[in-house]
Amino acid sequence: MKNVIEFIKDKIYYLMGATVLIIVILVIISSCSSKGNGEDVYTNIENNMAAAAEKYFATRKNRLPKTNNGTVKVTLSTLIDVELMERVVDPNKPDNVCSGYVLVTKINKQYTYTPFLKCKGSYEPMYLADKVKSIKIDEYGAGVYEEDEEYIFKGEDVKNYIKFNDKLWRIIKVDAEGDVKVVMVDNWNQTIQWDSAYNSKEESEVGITTDYLQTDIRKSLKNYYLKTFSAAQKSRIVAKNLCVGGYNINEDDYESIGPKVSVDAECNEIKENEYIGLLSVSDYVRASNDEKCTNVFSNECKNKNYLCSDEISTWTINRLTNSTSKVFYIEGEINYTKANNMKRINPVIYLRNVIVSGGKGTKTNPYKLK
Q1: pTM for this prediction
Q2: 270 lies in some domain
Q3: Does 370 reside within a domain?
Q4: How far apart are CA 256 and CA 233, in angstroms?
Q5: Do 176 and 278 fall within a single domain?
Q6: Cα separation values, 343 from 107, 207, 274, 316, 331, Å
Q7: Number of neighbours of residue 137 by Cβ within 10 angstroms
Q8: How many domains does the chain have?
């Protein structure tokens, strides 16, 4: 026993040194772990902001938005002033004070709380619309183009992927109102008819395309929207007026170049306040970066066009105006067929007030949204 005690005395300094070293290593690992999980730290702050905002409006219900999809905003400084939160100091830069706000959106009888935190130099999320507007055109002409107050993706290899509702989507454009139009890449596995009603105007034809409101496809899309998206996701989806008009096609001269693509032609017919829809003919044509892609059946529209891919196989929302039973579809190119035929669809929605927190916009690393 005496020998053991003497041995410990001889080695005590080594043991103390080893203990101190282990403690130092653990502190360094903890510090690195904290920085490595920095996004989680900021997410926790955002969660606290949302909870504080909910408490804030619990006693100020008269300030909540009154209309469906209406929004109000409460700033971080206000939440601090009423002592629902303390001043937010940047976890990675103690001398940096963060700012932000919480956006409250009404969805039917529910309210969603979306925090926006900004810690300059450390954590600076941005709105998806602003992210799109900042994208440059590359040496191959692929990128975002500003046209008629809209910002449109054009080209074959464009970084416009996002993840939403656990599905992969591609950004089509930012419209004049600042809303982001996106199309779901993961299209429906099943095929559906555009419409299956008996058509008395065209002998031996089935499917009526003259009233989009009454069509089978509109009912299917509406049902998908209601059953698929959560209240929080619906708070990001905004209702739009959809252009459901079409084009006059001379079927006796099908091989000739079709009519010039015109957004005005499509917007001759409008379906108001729709939360979900489909790609339009003009979406497909405007996605091409080939200057010769101007007409509905221009072969050049298949050039430099990210919508000309295996990802997209869908009915469009546009019909033939000189037929009451035929509709355009996209399968590598634009074509049309009878409305009662079976096609897959790639649903389209518009997003508003969506925040990008990460990602590169590629298929393997899409933009992460909050």
Answers
A1: 0.83
A2: yes
A3: no
A4: 44
A5: yes
A6: 32, 14, 21, 10, 10
A7: 14
A8: 2
